[in-house]
Design a protein that fits this description.
The structure is a homodimer. Chain A contains 8 helices and 18 strands. By secondary structure, chain A is α/β, with parallel strands linked by helices. The first copy, chain A, has 2 domains: about 170 residues, FAD/NAD(P)-binding domain (3-Layer(bba) Sandwich); about 140 residues, D-Amino Acid Oxidase, subunit A, domain 2 (D-Amino Acid Oxidase, Chain A, domain 2, 2-Layer Sandwich). In chain A, the strands form 3 sheets. In chain A, strands 1, 2, 8, 9, 10, 11, 17 and 18 form an 8-stranded mixed beta sheet that branches. The longest helix of chain A has 25 residues. Chains A and B meet through strand 12, helix 7 and strand 16 of A and strand 12, helix 7 and strand 16 of B.
């Protein structure tokens, strides 16, 4: 038996693979429920969630054919105010939660017609979405270009500051005694149909009786997962730009989502007057490069909607890899060997869905109640053979 | 008499205020000529020269009404091959000198007409500039957009890699024993009409019998300079973008300068396939922010000329402050109190003019021959009263 170089960490009750917003929120909840928790991530908080804008948009992100996801998103949005309050209470850190609603604006009549179609769908679901003429839109947000064609208002779609939330979650986890291992997981270890821990890329192993897979776009690449529970996650590349207001530049008052000659973009104002402009969507494998084309198009579209963007300063261009599934909804819940729990594939909705996902995973692991709405998102729904029984 | 905290540095023969390309090249030349030299700069090599593209463009930058500057630029260009060779011999470091010429391309017929006017001027001065039809332009550089309207070729306008040159100059200075003081100069100290050194922002003083002002845009803000020798330098803000070729993206073969619907831009390919795209020009005081508008316009103009830009990745957006004078030409030579030498105001031509400026300053300081062409750029030319005698 080889003599180890350093004492191995004590076995954890739970190993969370991935320290993004979902992994951190889950670790925090599990630790608060009494479990010993270890998060494994080479650079926690600096994946897709670092690039994200932090929109909480159950209505604005409601798309045709994604009705189950809309229900999940609405339930998740309802949890945010108390989640944010609890996080701030515990850490003293802000989350940047701003409840100013959002607008969806069409740049030309064809964009507006597309928005009308989406609006009809959203209202058919009973969602809180209000049609706006061009005049009403400009009265709601005076910085909109005179040329916009109108759009919609979503009074219940809000935002958090993604980086503040990540920092607060890190602090909350640290304060509760969650351990962090700065490494990559190569493989989930399974013996006799029970997980026993994980093997890191360097070859070391960590022992644990529960493994939560919250590795975003990399969730499907982990070794050791049986094929029928491997989450069908792939990366969708997105770029966000950070802009800073110049001296005397007027500040945007609320989130503006846009459809600009058929292209989507959004402009999210922070409490300090800065803006997050996003987001392109492209399949580029695991590259996190920032395509010049995406930067151009985002700036072009943002200034078409909001000419004031010209007065801002570009401080950052960042790419993130949103973890996407075939139906754009996350993969949640126990699957396969005892002790394996999936919490991945949150695509455009990582921040929105994180509190609900964390509560659901904590429920599955500890036996506490699991929000019913989360039970429809098991990996079994992608099975091509006979559908397995629900967990 | 207060007891100093640390021993004061030995008095230098020469204090160079500013560690940009001009200050570093000058320090290197002065040290090689036997002087003890001290360079004072809080962050040498990271001012305007860091943002620059490194074009050596005596013809492409030849503008109406700037005939004296054109002569200086041609003389400077002629010095570059031996300067670069010597720098590489001494340090073992590359300069990225590429002698592939450059193109000037008009995006539309009106741009092309403007280029024709410039061409007529350039050829009236006997400069090596060749007219190109659209077909000839695309045959010279196949990556040009099919829509371009034609332009010109400047076979003698080359480039260096600005950051490689700065690194090599730092190494050359270090190797020769030039001292570096990481601080800002508040004031040039003068006694009985002789310079005695400089006072740093923190209040410390450095003694030296010669002070070379090579502080770029800040040259006019130094204390202690008599009004009639204060260089009339102001900052012109410019943004450059760095782009990296994607896998399989074709590489640009030569510098492409463009006139795109009346706006200037350039695209400079490096030996590794990366591009430098520049440069906006705006008066924004001493701000080094990167305006969103400039990034948009540079990308829009570059992709209008070269659609392949869409396949590149944006790695950096940097602003620099080009030191400009009323006639766009530098301010060179001894002025005012004995021991004061000006070497600033190089505007768009810092890299091009640095070797000649360095030789000229070394001549003025050590008594070696001064290139005759440099003698026309004394600060006295801006005097509003009687013109002082040439130095």
């Amino acid at each position: 038996m080889p003599i180890p170089d350093a004492p191995a960490p004590a076995p954890a009750d739970v190993i969370v693979v991935g320290g993004g917003v979902v992994g951190l929120a889950t670790a925090w909840r599990l630790r608060a429920a009494g479990a010993s928790v270890m998060v494994v991530d080479p650079d926690p908080g600096h994946g897709a969630g670092w690039a994200a804008a932090g929109m909480l948009a159950p209505v604005g992100e409601a798309h045709f054919g994604e009705e189950p996801l809309v229900l999940l998103a609405l339930a998740a949005a309802a949890r945010w105010p108390s989640f944010a309050a609890e996080l701030t209470d515990e850490t003293g850190l802000p989350t940047g939660l701003l409840s100013t609603g959002s607008l969806l604006i069409g740049a030309d009549p064809s964009d507006r017609a597309s928005i009308e179609d989406v609006l009809a769908f959203q209202r058919s679901l009973g969602l809180d979405a209000e049609r706006l003429t061009a005049t009403e839109a400009r009265s709601a947000e005076p910085l909109l270009a005179p040329s916009v064609a109108g759009g919609a208002r979503f009074p219940g779609d809000h935002q958090v500051d993604n980086r503040l939330v990540l920092a607060a979650l890190r602090a909350a986890c640290g304060g509760e005694g969650v351990s962090f291992v700065a490494d990559r997981v190569a493989r989930v270890d399974v013996e006799a149909d029970r997980v026993t821990g994980v093997t890191l890329e360097g070859g070391a192993t960590l022992a644990g009786s529960v493994v939560v897979v919250a590795a975003g776009s990399w969730s499907g690449t982990l070794g050791g997962l049986p094929d029928d529970v491997r989450p069908p996650v792939r990366p969708v590349h997105g770029v966000t730009l950070r802009l800073r207001a110049g001296d005397g530049t007027p500040w945007l008052g609320r989130v503006v989502r846009g459809l600009v000659h058929g292209r989507h973009c959004y402009v999210v104002p922070r409490a300090d007057g800065s803006l997050v402009v996003g987001a392109s969507a492209e399949e580029r494998g695991f590259s996190d490069a920032v395509p010049a084309r995406a930067v151009h198009d985002l700036l072009a579209d943002a200034r078409t909607l909001l000419p004031v963007v010209d007065e801002y300063e570009l401080t950052e261009a960042t790419a993130g890899l949103r973890p996407t599934t075939p139906d754009n909804a996350p993969v949640l819940g126990p699957a396969g060997p005892t002790g394996l729990v999936l919490a991945t594939g949150h695509y455009r909705n990582g921040f929105l869905l994180a509190p609900l996902t964390a509560d659901a995973v904590a429920g599955w692991v500890t036996g506490a109640p699991v929000p019913e709405v989360a039970r429809s998102f098991g990996v079994g729904r992608f099975a091509t053979g006979p559908v397995p029984a629900a967990p």
